[in-house]
Design a protein that fits this description.
Distance between the termini: 22 Å
Structural class: mainly beta
Shape: globular
Strand content: 35-45%
Oligomer: single chain
Number of helices: 5
Mean pLDDT: 74
């Protein structure tokens, strides 16, 4: 693994620092001579880019880079844990005023994590377009990776590159540390490399303004950490993979912190720390490119060749091959419809019926409207069979449709049934049918970001409960002990079930929802049964005579729902039921159509006419737009409000003309009326037109027009 990455980086020498996607494409295309397995590569999941550093001389021209945190996500493990949990990564980076004469690149930490990092092997790469250190100055770059265990113990791995040009000859030093923090126990520190001088060519190249990159790769399978320094015009300098004495297999990646330190004495022009990008990536064991739309089995799973009897690589054959091989694999799909036609149920090797995934896999399509996986009604589409949180599966840029679980014994999860750790990004799940969980049934850890779950159906069967037309989440004996559902930037709309057409959180499960619309579903939009759920900046819109939010406590554990800056409309808005206390906590800033949800208000308002548009298709999602004079405008929570709303539009806008930028309550930020069009924009249709004029590409920009920072990367184009 390490050798292949080192060779790949060496092949890039002389290209400078082109955009990351170009590099990713070069790496992929260079290793894919056939449809079989490629040489070990990497999959970049996060990129933080810093703009215009080349024109600055720090510390007197600091940049403030408000990164887009859309595209980042956190997942939480463990029962009763509210919110996105401890896994975090920097979402904003800036150069602060000098502190004791040093410039520090501060990271304001947000509770978000690039989708699907978890306990996989992880690499961090810092790229400098120039790191110029003049005579008499010093500069340093630090990166800290933190991993945490379920019991609170944590490991910190830190790497520092120091360039000192204060003497007659510049020198460079690389320090690598690891520390283990155990509650109530003195910190355990292991020093791998300290004060070791790098070859003179390194500081010479850096001090003269050359480009360079620093890689830190943590191999979770081998338990090792390796470090590489790749400076222009010199051989790669590496610290061989070293066995970690403190990192445990159960530790999950928690946070990334970086800092750039300038001279101890601030003198204009003596140092230019031109940090270009920070990247987070996974090493990949194998990559399979599907080149056939005909359904067919793999000839010999585990032989590193995705090949059917007809000679092509099908989706089914690629899944079988990935299941048979150890390590994280990626399956790449082109645009088109992949139709599942080999009938058979209750089979768990992906040979017949649904696609059973039982090993860590990234399945990447060409877009939610371009790559379609159609089960043609023979079975559900995907079945993640392993009740193991260390089996991580990512489904990216896909449409999952026409699945049916009615012939299955459990009859749950028409589109997807999950018992592992599943991460879904930019997906559509539609037109599936089951007895419960019409679109998705979750018995594991499920994270969904920028997805739509719509037009799925729950069909009651004798002796089985029938709920969760869109999504169901509950504990079961063959799943994980404490299932957890995270929804962000998602819409669950127009799904059908006898009582709960939207989302049901059943006993043993918990959930966190942020910037989500639940609307147009039959009956209840969100049904919480003895679960713990946090909902923030969401819109729950019920119709007819059914509550939008139902909270039930038939068991001994009780149900708790916490609401923050959320809009709820229903008749009634809430239905609190059960022998034990069904609690709805007001965290503030909510806007609710009646007083049925809570007795003790904490800054929220009830009995409101929310003034929302009908449910509308907006970009690649569905949502309700706040109309002019809606009480949702500028009602949101500044602390927990992110930079972008459900559909990628900027938050923190002065929507009421008060002179203060403030995000709105609910999942969508109201468009700002243009001068002279206030009256026209009062109608929903024209508001939608105004909204649509801001293209999806502009939604990936900062308000001042700078390019997006911190977005999870879409799949490379092959």
């Amino acid at each position: 693994m390490f050798d292949s990455i080192q060779k790949d980086r060496g092949a890039r020498r002389g290209r400078g620092f082109a955009p990351l996607v170009v590099l990713a494409m070069a790496a992929i295309c260079g290793g894919l001579a056939s449809a079989g397995a490629a040489a070990p590569l990497e999959r970049v999941v996060y990129q933080e880019t810093f703009e215009d550093e080349a024109s600055h001389s720090y510390p007197y021209a600091p940049e403030v880079d408000d990164s887009a945190v859309r595209g980042l996500w956190g997942h939480s493990f463990g029962p009763g844990t509210l919110g996105p949990g401890p896994e975090i990564v920097a979402g904003r980076a800036r150069f602060s005023p000098p502190i004791d004469g040093q410039m520090v690149l501060e990271n304001a930490v947000f509770p978000h994590l690039p989708n699907g990092i978890g306990r996989r092997s992880i690499g961090v790469r810092a790229r400098f377009t120039a790191m110029s250190v003049s005579a008499g100055s010093t500069a340093a770059f630090d990166t800290y990776l933190e991993f945490v265990a379920d019991n609170g113990e944590r490991t910190e791995i830190s790497v520092t590159l120091l360039v000192n040009a204060s003497g007659a000859t510049p020198i460079a030093r690389l320090d690598v540390w690891e520390k283990r923090y155990v509650p109530g126990v003195p910190v355990t520190t292991s020093l791998w490399v300290a004060g070791t001088l790098l070859p003179q060519a390194v500081p010479d190249a850096i001090a003269s303004g050359g480009d360079c990159s620093l890689d830190v790769l943590v191999d979770r399978q081998a338990g090792t950490v390796g470090v590489w320094l790749d400076a222009a015009l010199i051989p790669i300098v590496s610290i061989p993979p070293t066995l970690s004495s403190t990192l445990h297999a159960s530790d999950a990646f928690r946070s990334l912190h970086t800092s750039v330190r300038g001279p101890t004495t601030a003198v204009p022009g003596v140092v230019s720390l031109d940090l270009d990008t920070i990247e987070i990536y996974h090493p990949i064991a194998n990559r399979f490119v599907v080149n056939s739309f005909v359904d067919g089995e793999d000839l010999n799973p585990g032989d590193l060749l995705c090949e059917t009897a007809s000679g092509g690589c099908t989706l089914r054959a690629a899944v079988q091959e990935s299941n048979a091989l150890a390590g994280l694999d990626e399956i790449v799909l082109s645009a088109g419809t992949h139709l599942l036609e080999l009938e058979g149920v209750e089979e768990d090797d992906a040979a017949l019926g649904d696609l059973d995934i039982n090993d860590s896999t990234i399945l990447t399509g060409a877009g939610r409207n371009a790559t379609i996986i159609d089960a043609s009604g023979i079975d559900r589409v995907f079945d993640l069979t392993k009740p193991d949180p260390y089996v991580d599966v990512q489904l990216l840029d896909l449409r999952i449709t026409n699945g049916s679980a009615l012939a299955d014994q459990a009859a749950d999860g028409g589109g997807v049934r999950n018992r592992s750790a599943l991460f879904m990004t930019r997906c559509v799940v539609d037109a599936n049918v089951a007895n419960t969980g019409g679109g998705i049934m979750n018995h594991g850890h499920l994270v969904m970001e920028d997805c739509v779950v719509r037009d799925n159906v729950v069909m009651p069967l004798p002796g089985l409960s029938a709920n969760g037309g869109g999504i169901g989440s509950r504990a079961e004996s063959t799943g994980l002990a404490s299932p957890w559902l995270n929804l962000r930037d998602a819409a669950v709309a127009n799904n059908h079930a006898p009582s709960t057409g939207g989302v049901q959180i059943a006993p043993g499960s918990g959930a966190f929802m942020d910037s989500v619309t639940l609307s147009g579903n039959d009956g209840v939009q969100l049904d919480v049964v003895d679960g713990v759920v946090l909902v923030q900046h969401a819109t729950l819109y019920g119709g007819g005579e059914t509550a939008a939010l139902k909270v039930r406590s038939p068991g001994a554990t009780g149900a708790v729902v916490e609401l923050l800056a959320t809009a709820i409309h229903g008749s009634p808005a809430c239905d609190l039921d059960g022998a034990n206390a069904a609690v709805v906590d007001d965290l503030g800033k909510n806007a609710i159509s009646d007083a049925s949800c809570m007795d003790n208000l904490n800054g929220s308002a009830t009995e409101l006419a929310l003034r929302l548009s009908p449910l509308l298709p907006i970009h690649d999602s569905f949502a309700h737009l706040p109309m002019q004079s809606s009480p949702l405008i500028d009602r949101g929570d500044s602390l927990w409000c992110r930079f972008f709303d459900q559909v990628g539009m900027p938050r923190h806008i002065d929507g009421d003309g008060s002179g203060t930028a403030q995000c709105d309550a609910g999942s969508i930020e109201a468009p700002v009326p243009e001068p002279g069009f206030a009256t026209a924009l009062a109608t929903a249709s024209l508001m939608v037109a105004s909204f649509a004029r801001r293209s999806r590409s502009r939604s990936a920009r900062r308000i001042d027009g700078a390019t997006t920072r911190g977005r999870a990367l879409p799949p490379p184009s092959l």
